[in-house]
Design goal:
It is a single chain. This protein is α+β, with helices and mostly antiparallel strands. The chain has one domain (2-106): Alpha-Beta Plaits (2-Layer Sandwich). The protein contains five helices and four strands. A hairpin with a 5-residue loop joins strand 3 and strand 4. It is elongated and about 95 Å long.
Amino acid sequence: MDFEVLDKRSNPLLERTEVRFKFVHTKEATPSRTLARDKVAEATNSKKEAVIIDHMRSDFGRGQTLGYAKVYKNKAAAQANERKYHQKRNHILEGEAKKKGGEKKAAAAAPAPAAEEPAAEEPAAEEEEKKEE
């Protein structure tokens, strides 16, 4: 699998470098987002946690993938400038996503409050009184 950086452009207002890249992967699977983050971080001499893969597009039968990534100066700059769903896709908001999912699961796992049993017995008591009469 070959990796090539096609274009680099600096964006000082957003504290990032925008990178267009290409994977050539004939007879192999489409590269994962994690592999792409590793390769872009390596090519730009930055940390993986500051790299956001915006998109990757593969054409059927061509064996190549074109992509666009944003390399921030640090993780805080990435969190300040990127949309939440991009952060989740690139595993920057991992802790938050797990927290929210855990709360939902815990609420679903809690047993429902049981109905009061005396209410169920009252009709039976009324029936006994009618029988006695």
